[in-house]
Amino acid sequence: MSELVIQPTTTAQWHALVSDAEYAAGYSLGEELECYLVFLLMRYTRKPQMLSRVMALDYLKQGNDTRAQRGQKLKDVGDHCLLFSGLFPKHAEKRMVKVSYFVKLGRSAYQQVFENLNNRDTIYSNLSKDFVTLMDILHTMRDIQHDETHTTHLSPIHAFDLWHDTGSKHAYETIKALSSNGNPIKPAFIDLPEDGSPLKRH
What we know:
This protein has helices at residues 11-25, 31-46, 67-87, 89-94, 99-116, 122-129, 131-145, 156-166, 169-178. By secondary structure, the chain is mainly α.
């Protein structure tokens, strides 16, 4: 598994890195979500083994968990999926799984944490609602780090799938950047909206 090129050691450094990525991506998370993302990244750099396997909601069915234990497991699934979709999308490709699978799973897990807490802690509801934004910021963070080599971590087809499935703004911009004429790459039978909005399913 590839590692982040930049591995800040202080909270301030992580805040700066996340803030730079927010600005570059054209997003503003707000203090609560920004702090959550910063501390999640700090935990990952201290325990990279947390992404050693792909989680699924079946993981939650093991044992007779208390309400608190189930909530923690759901939170772990959400965190895992956010890091996996944002930092290591190529691993989804290798496993023949769409990145949007982790988006759907992560959003569901965070929403269930919120409901498990009787709707008391709104940060988990916000993590579910803004999951794609958080993922886009992590993608942008990687782009910033790889800028000198002009590489991207999403192939054209997987970028298209991610944009189509989630409306990811970063995926849309990646499609445009990878095209030869500045127009998004797309299958010939699909009309791609100029504003970057996701395709509507019929």
